[in-house]
Amino acid sequence: MIDSLTNQAWTLIDNGRAAEALRMTAAPALSPQATSGLLMAHAAALKAVGRHDEALTFNRRAVTRAPADRFAWYNLAATLGDLSLHAEAEEAARKTIALGLDVPEVRLVLGKALQGLRRYDEAEGAFETALAARPTDATVHLELAQLRWMRTGRTDAALALLDAAIARHPTVSNLRLIRSTVLTFAGDHAGADATLEDALARAPDDLLVRIAAARSAGAQGDRERMLGHAREAQRRAHGAGETRAVLCEALLANGEADAAARVAEDMVAAAPDDQYALVLRNTAWRIMDDPRGALFRDYAALVRTDRLETPEGWPNLDAFLDALRERLMEMHDLTTHPLHQSLRGGTQVPSLDRSQDPLVRAFFESARKSVARYVEALGPGDDPIRRRRSQDFAVAGGWSVRLKSEGFHADHVHPRGWISSAFYLDLPGRFDDEATRAGWLQFGHPGCLTEPVLEAEHFIKPERGTLALFPSCLWHGTRPFSDTGHRLTVAFDVIPR
């Protein structure tokens, strides 16, 4: 009976019905007699619905129940990695390999754990071992290319193994997709565009390549080609979330705000808490001068700053900030920015919300008080921001950014957030130029092409010790600054529980 239940649960998970699998396995998984297989299936269902912390308990029980089960150890390693518990993830991954499961998936988990432990040479070695076994594994290629890019800031280093794999396997389109990603975040938009058009010529049915080609065309200013690719993507996968998003972007780029609004309204109806769907809709409404968009431009009510309270045990805020600065600067040991992030010209330390470092934990404990005040000040309402209002919230992602001179954040939103933030820890030089607003946080400038062009509407001047809080569905970015030093910030997202 248990085996049948386990098989049913995995079938549901594989078919995108994790919530059903979760209900089916919840009670049996609590039984002391639950098999390791059932415990793993229940953990997988929890992970599929975003409850990774709870999944870890069941993954741990699975290895206790079957200490020689290599799959139980692999699943434990993967969950530990998801939670940025890197030392334990390394240990569990090595145990998996010792038990005989030495496959690229395990080496990927090991490599990411080693990277999280800042043992970069070993991490590269783990990724290389995975690729030796499976030369076209796109996920591993992406991780290795990103790590080499962040370590060196050189596209030739990042692309060396990837280009060799493309030469040997020219029909594997997702390898060219990764290549275009590296080139995009290295600033070579023409090279990225040519790579995607080459991939599309070889694989015209590849939806992800088609979507990327649409956005790449937009980055090149070719609005007509962008719309053509977006419409073709929509034709091939009508109603899919990402195809709707790129179609909406293309319509905005081509001055078809009414049509873009209709697409975005459908996106919001399908996923009311998707912050990117909200911002696309609100951008179309702004162009149309639709009064329904006024709420999202009420920056006086939605964007606030708060002075961080001095954490307990510290004589004053400056003393704490000095110590936190030194600790974070030790962690910023790479050369340049990661892929798929808004950061340009700097470095990023991820997963600070999972850190056990006392200084980092003290920061978040103090920041929670500012968030609570912000949530209270929002007031009640039934709009997409205020209807989620709750003092029972969780930090869902935290990171630090060190921007160098001419660095900035491209305008963006946080699709899975609710409230986002920027905390200013170290500000070398001057940030008080009211004319250029160099280094300032800006709101309202779209991160996608629009016709007509929309300018930023609201700004925050950086001040050390200040925490800026705002809805995740607002376009936000920073303006470049020039200085010999680095600007150091911490940011995080908050979601209601």
UniProtKB/TrEMBL annotation:
Pfam families: 2OG-FeII_Oxy_5 (PF13759), TPR_16 (PF13432). It comes from the Bacteria. Keywords: TPR repeat. TPR repeats lie at residues 104-137. Gene3D superfamilies: q2cbj1_9rhob like domain, Tetratricopeptide repeat domain. SUPFAM superfamilies: TPR-like (SSF48452). InterPro entries: CHP02466, TPR-like_helical_dom_sf, TPR_rpt. This is Tetratricopeptide repeat protein. It comes from Caulobacter segnis.
